Amino acid sequence: MGENHRIHLCLAKMSDTGAEQRYIQEAFDTNWVAPLGPNVDAFEKELEHYLNELKVPELVEGPTIKTGALTSSTTFHVAALSSCTAALHLALLLLGVGRDDEVLCQSFSFCASSNPVTYCGAKPVFVDSEKDTWNMSPELLEVAIKDRIAKTGCKPKAIIAVDLYGMPAHWEAIEEIARRYGIPVIEDAANAMGSRYKGRLCGTFGDIATFSFNGNKMITTSGGGALICHDETAKRRSIFLATQARENALHYQHEVIGYNYRMSNISAGIGRGQMTVLEKHIAHHKHVHYLYKELLGDLVKDNPNSDYDSNFWLTTVTFGKDADMEALCKALNAAGIEARPLWKPMHMQPVYKDAPAYINGVSETLFKTGICLPSGPWVSDEDVKFIASKIKSHY
User: Fold this and answer.
1) Contact 163, 152 (CB under 8 A)
2) Which of the residues 225, 233, 339, 358 could staple to 84 if both were Cys, CB 3.0 to 4.6 A apart?
3) What is the pLDDT of residues 16-59, one digit of tens each?
4) Segment 144-162, tens digit of pLDDT
C-alpha cells in the first residue's frame, strides 16, 4: 500500500503470458525494427476485428448516413499511428478543416483534443459540459452552432466530442444535432476503449474516431494511437498523409504536406500483446471503481443511467464547493498516492484566452471540486481501501 510503494493513477501492465515480448522478439529476429512492418498490419486488423465484431448488438438497417449513424453496412477501418493527437490532426485534415475554419471542441478535456485544430490553422470554439456525463453539452452545442452561424455567416467545420475518463458522451443527442446542421463529428475516445453507449462501443461514433495507446491508457503500445474510419479510402488517405505524403513514384515525390505519424513495428508488437488482456484490464478498472463506490459512496462519479457503460479508465470523485482540492491532492501524494485534479477547462487556459466559449459553469465547478484516483491494473483492493481511508481522514 501507499506507505510502502507509490500508487500510480494508471501504470501500464503487460500480459502474464509474455505475448508482448514474443511479438517484439519476432520483430528483432526478422529485423523489422524500423517503422511499419508485420506487427503494424496485424495490430490494425486486430483492432478492426474488435470494432466490427463487437460494435453494437443490433444495427439499424438502411443506407449509411454520412454524419455518423451506424448501419448494418458500416465497417470500421483502422490506421495505427504514433499518438492519438496525430490521429485527431489527421481526422481534421480528412474532414477538410483548414485555415480560419471553426471547430467546436469540448472544453473539459486534455489539450490534445483541441490543439490539433490549431495545427490546421483553424480556430477552436469551446463548448461546456452537461452535468450527467461531464462531456459536451448537447444543449450548449446547438446554442454554439446557431451563434457561430449568426456571427460568422458560416457553420463550424467539425465537432470534436470526448468520452472523458471513459464515460461515453451523450451520443444520441450530439449526433442528431450534427446531422441536422450537416456538421461532421470526430469522437475522441482516447480514454474510452471498451466503454459503451446504448450497447455500442466507443470508437464507433461520429464520422471518424480516435483511440490512445499512451502508457497510461486501457492498453498501451508505449506511445501510440489509432484513427478509426468508416471506409477504406479514408484509411488509405490517412496512411498516405501519415507517411510524409510520399507519392507512388520511384523517386521521392511530394505534392501535399505530409507528416511522420505512423506507428512503429515494435510499438505495434506491444499493442498486439495488450489486445490479449484488454477485457481483463476493463474488468479490473470496473472492479476498482465499484470498490471505491462502496467505500466512498456518492462522492464517486458513476454511470448516469443504464444507457452508459463506462470502462472507468479513471475513477473520479467530487466534493463540496468549499473543499480544497490542492490540499487534498498534496495530502494524498504525501501518503504515496498519485492524485490529480480534474481537467482545467480549455476555455480557462491562457493559450486559449481569446477563443470563443459557450459556458454554463459545469466544467469550472468540476475543476475546483474534483480529483482523479488511482484505477489502473496494478491497483489492488488493499490500495483502494488505503486510499479511501486517507480521503476520509482528510475530511
Assistant:
1) no
2) 225
3) 999 999 999 999 999 998 778 999 999 999 999 999 986 555 44
4) 999 999 999 999 999 999 9
Q: Where are the alpha helices (DSSP H) in the chain?
A: 19-29, 38-54, 84-94, 115-119, 138-152, 171-181, 232-242, 265-275, 278-296, 325-334, 362-369, 381-394
- Please provide residue 354's backbone torsions phi and psi, each rounded to the nearest 5 degrees: -100, 0
Alpha helices in 171-263 (DSSP H): 171-181, 232-242
Would you say residue 6 lies in a domain?
Answer: no
In a shared domain, residues 282 and 271: no
pLDDT at 73: 58
Give dist(CA 233, CA 262) in Å, integer. 17
Cβ of 296: how many Cβ atoms within 10 Å?
17
Which residues on neighbouring strands pair with residue 197, listed in sequence order? 200, 308
pLDDT in tens, 112-148: 999 999 999 999 999 999 999 999 999 999 999 999 9
What does each C-alpha distance from 349 to 104, 111, 124, 221, 333 come to in angstroms? 16, 9, 13, 30, 25
Give the residue among 238, 254, 233, 245 at the shortest CA–CA distance from 81: 238
Alpha helices (runs of H) in 245-313, residue ranges in sequence order: 265-275, 278-296
The dihedral sign for the CA sequence 344, 348, 350, 355: positive
Both 49 and 126 in a single domain? yes
User: Does 202 share its domain with 293?
Assistant: no
CA distances for 387 relative to 26, 94, 179, 300, 374, angstroms? 41, 44, 44, 13, 9
